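Morning, I've got a small favour to ask if you have a moment. I've dropped the whole record in just underneath, so have a look.
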Amino acid sequence: MRKGIGVSPGVVVGIAHRVESVLGSIEQHRLDHPGQVPSELERFDRAVIDSAADLETQIQKVAQELGDSEANIFKGHLQIVNDPSLVSKVHDLIENQQMTALSALQSVMQTYAAQFARIEQDYFRERMSDVRDVILRIGSHLTRKPFLHVNGTGESRNGDESVILVAHEILPSQAMSLGDLPIAGIVTEVGGSTSHAAILARSRGIPAVSGVEGVMTEVESGDLMIVDGRDGMVILRPDQEATSAYRKVQREFFNIKDRLVANRDQPALSADGTRVELLANINNLADAQASQKVGASGVGLFRTEYLFLTHPDVPGEEEQYEYYRQIILNSPGQSVTIRTLDLGGDKTVPYLGRRSEPNPFMGWRSTRIFFENSKLFVTQIRAILRASRHGHVSLLFPMITTLEELLYLNKLVKETRNNLRREGVPFGEDVKTGVMVEVPAAAICIDAILRETDFISIGSNDLIQYLVAADRDNPKVAHLCESLNPAIFRVLQMILAACQRTGTPVTLCGEMAGQPRSVLVLFGMGLRRFSMSPAFIPTIKALLASVSTAQAERYAHHVLQLNTNDEIRSYLTARLHEVSSTLEMFDTV
């Protein structure tokens, strides 16, 4: 039994599938006989040629879209691919030790890693990440697999067993590449409730636990395991009694989920008839289509960076336009709030270069990138404005810290509109612009922000981690990124009160919007627009139908008098049980 952080509620019993590097395990494999050496050398050389061709294409496109300086990272990778020393080392291991090309490539990477680790200067040590990228690229051509893949399943005890993904960490680009797999649960060694593994799990309505240290050394693909996303419990190789008990809970969980989906065509109303908008957070086209199926009234947050993270290089204006157009056409009511690029932190792309930052979450990220790469921003704005003709589109700026930043972005959008008119390019004229409030400075200066924006969207995920000064993906401190925190509710009350005074539309689009206990308080504070993972919409609709406005207002008033996380958690757990004991299963402890 292993304890972690419950990040997506529910219970699943299934078979573990380890997520491995494309290079596989550290075990070395050798050729069956020396006669295979020439063909193995040829296979490796072909992978090098294909990798170089990839990089040359990326250099050309990135230089065209962003400029020569941004293409330098790929030029550096191309130099590594063409390095005679790298090729010679791999050839030597294949010829003299009869290693397979993949094992030889891995052995060379380990040698380089040991050499770089001994270098004192940070700059040169960090170049190992470039070497690793190149070696993984060559390896992906050798195996014809993406940089990460799901390892073999082993012998399943039941051909119908659910798949539980087990990984050290799931990065944003990896999360998207795993999106089509039949995953029923996720367990990771690092990450918290707002990590990308957690967001992926909640978007698909599957149980997940993060922060389970050492699980990758203890589990093999094919092992039976239990994941309880409510209280963060993982059981490896359970006995028959535990397996039977948890299978019963799993059946109950999915039976309730199936019943809740039946409310998709019903309006979102409280018990006394107060209307609420339940919107969807989406990453891609599949999420947009899923939001239709669960009865969302629109898309409250479309995270555009996932298009960039899964793209081999920077997507151009036409490609972005077509992608946004498809998202709009497939969203409920063709209503979409599109967030501009939120890269940086743990979401990096090579064409923006690598920067050594002590704390990347508080560094050069999100909207801050645009001040050095305005061309990237303008290209995206042009594509969004053009696509907005196909629906009801709003434009959302993330990570706004100062009023000056907002004024600068508003000016760029105005100039982009004028340029499109001058060029005779059709676009939507009625696109509203909004600010994502997730930096405490913006929350404190909310009155000034409101004078320069059409709407507000509260990004509670980042707002929480910045307020409590804790990295949400660091298992040592992720417990501090707790939404049931008195400081969080007091700041949210301040933002909501300011929006109510000015009549500014406000949505909360962080993970709090899908947490039943948090929703009881937020609704009581006057919030009427919630945006969440599509899978949670039926749950929150059922919850609101079970509580009156007056009830929720009493809950909110009481919570704002409490001083500790534990007091708030205990109080709201009791209230949720009173309102709907059935829905307790859909909130994490």
